[in-house]
Amino acid sequence: MTRISALLYGFASYTVFFVTILYAIGFVDGMMVPKDIDTGTLAPWPEAALVNLALMSLFAIQHSVMARKPFKQWLTQYISPSIERSTYVLLASLVLLLLFWQWRPMPGVIWQIDHPQIAAAVTALSMLGWVIVFTSTFLINHFELFGVQQVVDNFAGRDAAAPRFRTPFYYNFVRHPIYLGFIIAFWATPTMTVGHLLFAAVTTAYIFVGIFLEERDLVDLFGDDYRRYRDRVAMIVPWRRSVEPEQKDFDGAERTSGEARAR
After folding, report:
1. For the chain, which residues make up each domain, given as ranges?
2. Residue (of 37, 17, 21, 18) closest to 29 by Cα position
3. Comparing C-alpha atoms, which of 67, 260, 85 is closest to residue 165?
4. How many angstroms separate the Cα of 161 from the Cα of each of 43, 92, 146, 154, 215?
5. pLDDT in tens, the chain (263 residues)
6. How far apart are CA 63 and CA 255, in angstroms?
7. Which of 170, 177, 190, 220 has the highest count of CB atoms within 10 angstroms of its CB?
8. How far apart are CA 154 and CA 159, in angstroms?
């Protein structure tokens, strides 16, 4: 693949990602999208639950398998290393779009806040979660995280910068502010339906699996620097001291809040 082709591919993948994440906000919060988490064709609840779990499992498998180092080594035998991250981002975005399209609503209400001011405040809290997600990516390296930096460096004939460990702003309070932002965005809703609860619970469980996977590679990459950071800074809950034992090292091959902030 030529450098210009790789550059165009990287920018196209980023565009698909950007549209997907904007749609995700509307999908979760039920605003300004044609189909959200609580709308669409109703199905019997066992069918809806199975389909929704299958869709979320597909995302989890794609997201985790493609992030593993052995898979990256295999993939880059067939594609340029400069577009490996863009390919990961593109496929993750396409799987999410499939989830939005095929999601089955489960409209039974778990809780509902009828007071308009309180409901608005809860929705604002969800928006704050999305703000934390976005600002956290820019505190590290947003464009490297989503594959743009790699294709730009390749186009310019530059080598990628060596990883270096740093902890800007949010990262002094929690080790994984991107994940924290997602948890806030998913759970802060004035109307919690069965479908929304399923989505929030499964994605939250996967987030902790992702952390489990992420931090092991960070320890491998940065050694004692990351171990000291893990002991000093809370994982998800701000200002709560980490208490994870040494043997719970997790894996960071995904370049999410961990490896990406090392750039």
Report:
1. 3-262
2. 37
3. 260
4. 50, 25, 16, 12, 21
5. 599 999 999 999 999 999 999 999 999 999 999 999 999 989 999 999 999 999 999 999 998 899 888 899 999 999 999 999 999 999 999 999 999 999 999 999 999 999 999 999 999 999 999 999 999 999 988 999 999 999 999 999 988 777 777 778 889 899 999 999 999 999 999 999 999 999 999 999 999 998 887 887 777 778 788 888 888 899 888 875 544 444 333 333 333 334 444 43
6. 11
7. 177
8. 7
Residues 6+ apart with CB under 8 A from 257: 136, 140, 171, 175, 176, 177, 178, 179, 214
| Per-residue three-class SS string for 40-95 | CCCCCHHHHHHHHHHHHHHHHHHHHHCCCHHHHHHHCCCCCHHHHHHHHHHHHHHH
Residue 170 structure tokens:
């949010």
Q: CA-to-CA distance for 9 and 27, rounded, in angstroms?
A: 26
pTM recorded for the entire structure = 0.85
Handedness of CA 167, 170, 172, 175 (dihedral sign): negative
Return the DSSP state at 175: S
H helix or E strand, kind and range, residue 112 = strand 109-112
